[in-house]
């Protein structure tokens, strides 16, 4: 291993990616014309698992994210996402960093949601409803608590132990936190919503508040979904639907199964550039499917923090 290379575990990777710095890195990636993100490769594996290879590069760094996604690990104590993000220096060809893949995925996804919420959420103090108490539920709690004036969180999960643990973490951060059994019933009370489930079934189908911001991150293939067609349609006809990247036009199962025109929906980049603007009223849906550029942003942030 070259002397300049570091191999970081989950804790060390998280320490290199504080959310305020990560949000700034996301903005910078979207403004950088040197950023290139080739199409990711997804290989189906026996038993329903998948192998993902996601490259990206800019003028200084090149990364390759290699992860497995194993839905059958849900509830077993083993993470659904495992793997690494390898960071190379383009000028020398040397490997600079090896980051923990699940940590990068969780933190950059939550940071993207928080970045969208900072612009689109009408009531950023919450209450925040989190559906799903796994790695993405935790990262979204942390990202929203670190970057929004959040005061209260409500947590729904199929696993009671995980929900209670996430509620305890929220209380440690000074937030009011409750575990709830019916997430649909909470839509009338929560203007901030995050769905971060394995996306093997619809978890929200009631109508959202008129001032709601919903970040749906669990479904990232055409066959997956967390939101009902009616809820997606309500957002499309109300405050609007926003995509995390152009790739979501081919991957957002919630929207595709609702029969919505994905080609019409603006991206986060358009929002931040000001070329597309939020509508005045109705619930807003931010649909996130993941993009290699977000992993590049995390790599850049990790290098800077070093």
From TrEMBL:
Pfam families, A to Z: OCD_Mu_crystall
Domain of life of the organism encoding this protein: Bacteria
Cellular-component GO terms for this entry: cytoplasm
Name listed for the protein in its UniProt record: Delta(1)-pyrroline-2-carboxylate reductase family protein
